[in-house]
Design goal:
heterodimer, A: about 180 residues, mainly alpha, 6 helices, B: about 150 residues, about 70% helix
Chain lengths: ~180, ~150
């Protein structure tokens, strides 16, 4: 008999069903919170205005208040080698150093957020509702795709160079020996 | 200007937290929207078995469809969630530029408001604390410049 929480393969259909329900719940949370209104987001980011609207700070408070508990439980379960309830494994990012790509990326993202008042989640929630979000999402997907293509090309070139260097050394060794 | 709405903000935030927690506890996935979407745009075949890649695409697509469906439900029952439906406070060209910046930035920085701001901060990830501080600060700075220096909106 296997333990219910022993590692086992994910059932893709269950995972997709859960993901759909979570996406819908996430969207309703964003809408209720006010994150799907660019005017509301910009009124929150406009901290020097006498009419500053601090509401959206409470979205983060509410979300972290709940998720903090479960993120911790998932961390413990993952460390103990247990599987998530619907199988598969925990895909939680490994701790990594703070690097330039992270900071530059966050700065570019913040600039876009402050320009239009949309971040990725709310823009997708508004996708079938407000025409302007279609413009935003189209541009965002293009930016995501292009960055991935460039990053993969740079990585491939680096790997290629490493391999060429390795081959050169092997030939040299052979010539000497 | 928009009037403060503290209670719905807290409640909506809690729902976001419940959603992220369910996704993590049931499937082991992090509910970072830019990461979920970005994973659909990978161009390289990374040598993983076909079935695994298909399952990967399926849950990501399902999450995005859930976001869209939630948007439709909101429009049905709470259209004021979207602010003014007539248009954005910003010109379409500026919105497109903003979209590109968000796409490039979240890919380079590996996350957005949900991935770093909610999931990462909940894990007390140092990278996410740094990223969140930077995107909040730059978002506020850009809003300040656009509204009070350039005098737009």
């Amino acid at each position: 008999m296997t333990r219910p929480d022993a590692p086992r393969p994910a059932d893709p259909r269950v995972h997709a069903l859960v993901a759909f329900a979570c996406g819908a719940l996430f969207a309703i949370g964003l809408g209720l919170a006010g994150m799907t209104s660019p005017a509301k987001v910009l009124a929150f980011l406009d901290v020097t205005s006498p009419d500053w609207d601090p509401s959206l700070a409470f979205v983060m408070a509410g979300a972290i208040g709940v998720h903090f508990v479960f993120a911790r439980r998932a961390g413990v379960a993952a460390a103990a080698g247990r599987a998530p309830a619907a199988g598969g494994r925990y895909h939680v990012p490994e701790p990594a150093p703070i690097d330039r790509a992270l900071l530059a990326g966050a700065a570019l993202f913040g600039a876009g957020w402050g320009l239009a008042g949309y971040c990725p989640g709310p823009a997708l929630v508004a996708f079938v509702v407000t025409p302007i979000s279609v413009v935003f999402v189209g541009a965002m997907l293009t930016g995501m795709w292009a960055t991935r293509v460039v990053r993969e090309r740079v990585a491939a070139r680096a790997a290629h160079r490493a391999l060429a260097l390795e081959n050169e050394r092997a030939i040299e060794r052979e010539a000497r020996g | 200007m928009t009037p403060p709405t503290i209670a719905p903000a807290l409640a909506g935030g809690a729902l976001i937290g419940v959603s992220a927690s369910l996704l993590l506890m049931l499937t082991g996935r992090v509910a970072g929207v830019s990461g979920v979407v970005g994973g659909l745009l990978t161009t390289s075949a990374d040598g993983r078995p076909e079935a695994e890649r298909r399952g990967e695409t399926a849950w990501r697509l399902a999450f995005v469809l859930g976001l869209l469906a939630g948007g439709v439900a909101l429009f049905q029952y709470r259209p004021e969630s979207f602010g003014s439906l007539e248009g954005s406070p910003v010109s379409p060209l500026l919105v497109a530029l903003a979209g590109v910046l968000v796409g490039v930035g979240t890919t380079l920085g590996n996350g957005c408001t949900s991935g770093h701001g909610v999931c990462g901060l909940s894990r007390l990830s140092r990278r996410s604390v740094a990223a969140t501080a930077v995107f909040m600060a730059v978002g506020m700075l850009v809003t300040f410049v656009v509204r009070h220096v350039a005098g737009a909106r």
